[in-house]
Write a structure and sequence with these properties.
With 486 residues, this protein is of the alpha+beta class. The protein folds into three domains: 31-106, no CATH class; 112-400, Alpha/alpha barrel (Glycosyltransferase); 415-485, no CATH class. It has helices at 15-30, 55-65, 76-83, 113-124, 127-147, 160-163, 186-206, 209-229, 263-267, 272-282, 317-328, 333-352, 390-399; strands at residues 8-11, 32-33, 43-44, 52-54, 94-96, 183-184, 231-232, 237-238, 240-242, 253-254, 402-405, 410-415, 421-428, 431-440, 449-455, 459-465, 471-477, 480-485. β7 and β8 form a beta hairpin. α1 (15-30) crosses α12 (333-352), α2 (55-65) runs parallel beside α4 and α4 runs antiparallel to α5. It is globular and about 65 Å long. It starts with 7 loop residues before the first strand and ends with a strand.
């Protein structure tokens, strides 16, 4: 790989995180496989040599590989999966690459394609792709609606293996009967709500105006159902619940607290008061505020393992990313950043520890070490894979503080550190751009920040300085080099 072609992060407050960023890309490139089957595109593998492709792994890998400046395809995995969609809309959780057959029967996985595709569009501005893949995403949404809903309108996975949270104590695993153990899974209902919101946004972007109302109504109805059946006012938390044959019967909560509940923040199901309550759980040291947050299972659960034991407490990049994005989009940017800092600090320490090194599949919640798996051994190393989300996407979005909106040609930059930070050589909306903050003026904690921008095209830039002065500036910049004082 040629790092000269990649985005170059600047973060003087912690140079080790730059090393972690570079290591993540090196592993990612090593994990690109070229299938023997000529119909398959080269794809990034989370488990090299397995001969399989997983749906939700592929989606989460897209969220960091979009920052590769095209040096590795962010979309090949998704296109390989779309090609295998059945005529009725179904897409499997996992496929065998050589044969294209389902690896584990008719199982689904967290359906986050629409979210991921719209996130990719916000960075690239590729509206043609949205128009091309929209029918695929719509058919998949409708298949799930027709085939994975309970009588009450909530959704179910076949078992916890399908949720991706394999050995979480939420239902049978592996289940002999793929009916979901009569559970309504909070995460799948939220993921469908998130998909509906993003399908409405995609429909608006490509001019499918009749579908905007359809999918907004789907999202609103799911929000109502989630809050009616899954929210406990007494504990201030969301739970999976057991279905009943009649909606008039009480739907009992499945009373283990898992990180699946936090999908309600990013999906929009949780209102302001409910978000405030969920944040209290995130900050509770007897639940989700562990040494390395966020554990996949509350530390107060009798099944919880301080060493992780996979999904009995393990800290997973996709869960942390989902939580951080949800918090960031709902006025909890400081907490989102705190979680990201702890996550990257732990990953960096483990990378530097000669006992471990590298980047791992998951991490222990109460020790600075990799998580244990279901059998008590260490999880997989060289896992980039979705573990690249922290060193790449969280570094760019949450630590350096950049967000992108190609539709308005706008980069938003939330500058938090007093030291030098930024990102050089990014490809946003068809333009090559570098942004560097030289830091605050010395001796002035609330002082001004000097910012350098270079772009080969016109952009809108919104800067927020997060210090005692708390200043904001919005400017439109033509192609060329610019210096601003904010």
């Amino acid at each position: 790989m040629d790092f000269g072609k990649m985005p170059r992060p600047i973060y003087d407050a912690n140079p080790e995180w730059i090393r972690l960023y570079e290591l993540a890309w090196k592993i990612a490139f090593k994990n690109v496989e070229v299938p023997e089957n000529p119909e398959w595109l080269p794809q990034m593998s989370c488990i090299t040599g397995s001969g399989k492709i997983w749906q939700w792994d592929s989606c989460f890998m897209t969220l960091f590989s979009r920052y590769s400046n095209g040096t590795v395809s962010a979309l090949n995995n998704l296109d390989n999966l779309y090609r295998l969609q059945r005529a009725d809309g179904y897409i499997s959780m996992t496929y065998v690459v050589n044969t294209g057959l389902e690896a584990y029967g008719e199982r689904v996985n967290p359906p986050i394609y629409a979210w991921v595709e719209f996130e990719h569009y916000k960075y690239t501005g590729d509206r043609d792709r949205l128009a091309r893949i929209y029918p695929i995403l719509k058919k998949y949404f409708m298949w799930l609606k027709c085939n994975r809903r309970r009588v009450n309108g909530l959704y179910y996975f076949e078992d916890t293996g399908s949720t991706g949270m394999d050995n979480s104590p939420r239902s049978g695993y592996p289940a002999s009967n793929l009916s979901g153990s009569d559970v309504c899974f909070i995460d799948l209902s939220c993921q469908q709500q998130l998909s509906a919101r993003n399908l409405a946004a995609i429909a608006e972007a490509i001019g499918e105006t009749k579908d905007i109302v359809l999918f907004n109504a789907e999202a609103d109805e799911l929000s109502r159902l989630i809050n009616h059946y899954c929210w406990s006012e007494r504990t201030g938390f969301y739970y999976d619940c057991f279905t009943r044959c009649s909606n008039a019967e009480r739907h009992n909560f499945l009373s283990c607290k898992t990180a699946a509940a936090f999908w309600t923040i990013i999906s929009g199901a949780a209102n302001e008061d409910q978000r405030r309550s969920l944040v209290k759980h995130l900050l509770d040291p007897d639940e989700f505020c562990t040494l390395h947050p966020v554990p996949s299972l509350s530390s107060g659960d009798p099944n919880y393992s301080p060493s992780g034991s996979y999904w009995l407490g393990g800290v997973w990049a996709p869960i942390n990313y989902m939580i951080i994005r949800g918090l960031s989009e709902n006025k909890y940017q400081d907490l989102a950043r705190e979680i990201a800092v702890k996550h990257l600090s732990a990953m960096s320490s483990i990378m530097q520890n000669p006992m471990y090194g590298g980047i791992w599949e998951a991490y222990a919640p109460e020790y600075i070490r990799p998580s244990t798996d279901k059998d008590g051994c260490n999880v997989r190393d060289n896992f980039v894979g979705w573990s690249g989300l922290g060193p790449i996407a969280m570094l760019i979005e949450t630590i350096i503080g950049l967000s992108f909106d190609a539709a308005s040609n706008t980069i938003s930059w939330r500058i938090t550190d007093s030291g030098r930070s930024g990102l050089e050589n990014i490809c946003f909306n068809g333009k090559r751009i570098s942004l560097v903050c030289e830091g605050l003026k010395e001796g002035e904690p609330g002082g001004e920040a000097r910012v350098r921008i270079e772009s080969d095209g016109k952009i809108n830039l919104r800067i927020v300085i997060c210090n005692a002065a708390s200043r904001m500036a919005s400017v439109t910049l033509d192609a060329g080099r610019h210096e601003l004082t904010v």
